[in-house]
Amino acid sequence: MFRPILSRTFGPRNLTLSQFLRHQSTKTLVKFDNADVHRFGIKDPVFKNLSLTIPENQHLVITGPINAGKTTLAEALAGQHSVKPTGAAKWPLLESLPGTLSDQIHLVSFQENSAMFSYGQHYYQERFNFSDPDNDLTLSDYLKSREKSDSKIAKVAETLDLTHLLPLSFVKLSNGQTRRARIARALLGNPAVLILDEPLMGLDIEHRKKLLDTLENLATKPGGTPVVLVQRPQDEMPEWATRVICLDGMNIVWDGTPTDYLQRILPQTTKEAAERQKYRQEALSKEEGTRDLRAPVVELKSVNVIYNKRKILDDISWTVRQGDRWALLGPNGSGKTTLLSFLTGDHPQAYSNELSLFGRRRGTGESIWDIKARVGLVSPEIHLYFNQRMSALEAAGTGFFDGVVPRSLSAEQTSTIERLFGEFGMSGVENRKLQEMSTGEQRLVLLVRSLVKRPELIIWDEPFQGLDLGMIHNVNTWLENHMKPEQTLIMVTHHEEEIPRAVTRRFKLGAGGVDANETGS
Ligand SMILES: Nc1ncnc2c1ncn2[C@@H]1O[C@H](COP(=O)(O)OP(=O)(O)OP(=O)(O)O)[C@@H](O)[C@H]1O
C-alpha cells in the first residue's frame, strides 16, 4: 500500500510535499565553508575554519557575551572582512543583483561610538536649551538624506512612532528617539539584506515590541527582506526568529532553535528574579523608620519643563535622601534625562523651578561646577563625547575633573582608578584604548569614571547598555559590597530585570512626565 503522495513526508526533516518543494527552491543567503575570516591589518584570522550556511528564509539571531565575536560575525556576513581561501564565502542569493555586497547588505550598528555621530559639533547642554530654534538638522532632514519620497518617510516614521518628532532638531531627540530615527533611516535604505547590531538597546518596552513587529513584517512577508539580529543574551527573543547562534571567544558554541535556546536560559533568569525580589524586600524593611532621618540630597517641588508648548515634565515632586538607591523609570521621551539634567546643573530651567540640591536651593549662588564636583554621572550622551583614542586610564581619570579631556593624574588618583577597575573585574585594562574595547567595556570604564572622586550622588543613566550578564553581575556586586552607605544612587533603565537588587526604590515618569509615581519596591 502506498500512502497518498500529499500525506507522505520527504527528506531528513520529514517535510510535507509542499514544504519539501519550497525547501528545495529556497536559496542560500550566505555560505561560509571552512573560511578563515581576517580583519584588515591583523595577521591571524579572527574566525578560523568558520562553517555556516544561512538559507534565505531563515530568521537568524546572533547572541553571546561581550567580546564573543557577535559584531565581527555580523560584519563578516555583510562581506566587510576578507576571507581565505578565496571562494570560501559565498552569497548565492545576491549574485544576480546589481551592485556590490555593501550596496545590497546594510549592517547598522547601534553601539555608542562618538566617531559614528556628529555630536561633537554640539555642546552638551544644547539639548536642554529649549529656546534654540530647530534650524539645525531636523529629524526630517536626516531621513531625507537617505530617501527623498515624503510618503515613504511618513510611512516609516509612523511605524516607528516618530511622526510628531519630524520637525525637531536631531540633537534634541531623546536617546531612544535617536535610535528609532537611525532604524528608520536604515529601513528607508531598502536593502536586500538587513543586519541590525543591538537595535533594541535604549528602547523602552513598547518600542522594542513595535520594532520587532516591524522587522517581522519586513522579514516574513512574501518576497521579504532577510533580517539578521545581533542581540545580548538577555534581550527579548523575537517570536518570528527561527534560528539562534551563540558565540563565545570567537567561536560558534551553540546553534539551535529559539525554543531550545529559551529553555536553556529560562531557569537561570527565573531564579535570579526571585532572589532579587527577596533581597530588595529585606533591604527595605531594614531601613524602615530610619529613612526620614536622613538628609535630603534632591528635593523637587512641582517641577515643570515646557518646550514649544509641549509639557515634558508636569508638576513633578520628588525627594531623594542620602543613601537612597533609586531606579528612575519611564518610556522613551518621558523626560528622565531632562529630569537628571536638573540634578547635574545642566538645565537652564532649573532656576525657574523649586529645586534644592544637597540642602541648598538652586540659584542661590553656587556654580554648575560646585554641583558637578559632588555628582558622578554616566549617560549614553556623555559616552558620545569620549575620544576613542583615549586609554581606559585617561578616560576614567577625567572623572576627577568633571570633563572629557585627559589630564595628568597623581599616583594616588591612578591607584584609585586601578582599585576600581579591579573591583569591577577589569584589572589590567588601564592602557587599552577605548577604540579597542567593546561598547560594554567602554561603559564600564565610564562607570569607574563616575566613581573616582567618591561622589555623594551617583547618577547612572542607562548604565547597562552594551553590558552582558557577567558585567552586570560585576556592577551589582560592586553596589552591594563597595558603595558607601552615605552615597546616593539614581539609575535609569528600560529593563526591569536589570535593576540591581541593591536598588530598592522606583520613581516612574509617564509619557510626557505626567503620572509620576513613587514606589518602595
Ligand atoms: N530642546 C528641546 N526642545 C524640544 N523638545 C525637546 C528638547 N529637548 C528634549 N526634548 C524632548 O523632550 C522629551 C524628553 O526627552 P528626554 O531625553 O528627557 O527623555 P528620556 O525619558 O530620557 O528618553 P529616553 O528613554 O529615550 O532616553 C523628548 O520627547 C524630547 O524629544
Automatic annotation (TrEMBL):
Q: Which domain of life is it from?
A: Eukaryota
Concerning Pfam families, the annotation shows: ABC_tran
Q: Which UniProt keywords apply?
A: ATP-binding, Nucleotide-binding
Q: Which PROSITE patterns match?
A: ABC_TRANSPORTER_2
Q: Where is the ABC transporter domain?
A: 32-274, 298-521
Q: Could you state a single Gene Ontology molecular function term?
A: ATP hydrolysis activity
Which SMART domains does this one have?
AAA (SM00382)
The protein in question is named: ABC transporter domain-containing protein
Organism in which the protein naturally occurs: Phycomyces blakesleeanus (strain ATCC 8743b / DSM 1359 / FGSC 10004 / NBRC 33097 / NRRL 1555)
